[in-house]
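User: I'm designing a mutation panel for SDR family oxidoreductase and want to avoid disrupting the core. Could you give me a predicted structure to guide residue selection? Please restate the sequence first so the numbering is unambiguous.

Assistant: Good idea. Sequence first, for numbering, then the predicted structure tokens:
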Amino acid sequence: MSLKNKRVVVTGGTRGLGLGLVEALVDEGAKVWVVARDAADLEKVRTRLGVETASADIIDAAAANSILSDVRPAVLVLNAGAVPRMAPIDRTSWEDFTVTWDTDVKGGLYWMQAALNLPLAPGSRVLVSSSGAAQQGSPMSGGYGGAKRMLWLMAKYANGFSEQKGLDIRFQAIVPKQMVAGTGVGGAGSSAYAQAMGIEQDAFLARYPTMPPRQFGNHVVRVLTDATYDSALAIGIRGDTGVTVLEE
């Protein structure tokens, strides 16, 4: 797929991984719509990158249907999500434990349903943001790892429905395999794990390779433009080793 003049919707595209991806997409010539809640952040991105914007909460099912109906993107990237509330399992409340289920999974369900029920055009791609925590867990972040695994499974379920109905819409889980410093999730995670280890946050980050948001964006562009990854269900992304297929 060439991204030149292709319509792309990115939820949570005003900061962190989402912003890195938006920058990469704009450089490829895509026509990008950024969806987020904060109007001021949206205006900054619109002014700097020339993208279209829509202010909406990802757990608003009506907004998902309205935006996809109006834009009809060739690519939909479900990146927005909540920052997990960090605490060990013996000291977390149910409300904190499930915050990513109430946002990431709930929003993912509504947007995937909208993509299937409109439906988007044949050949469309839906990229669903998962996490390395979906494979190895993340004991300080409550239900985050389970929520990201659920999104991975939901992409699989959506592919099954798409095939059954002959929609030719492909759903793929994008799995960052490295912590990304300077993002809400990366900042919360590195701070909590550093504290648990009794070291400074900078010292913790120095022990583990991190991936800049723009590098992540470049790798996702590769996923979209390189036919090698067309049939993959789950795709791992690392800053140092690039793109790998985790599940066909």
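For picking mutation sites, this is relevant: The chain is about 45% helix and 15% strand. Residues 144-165 form the longest helix (22 residues).
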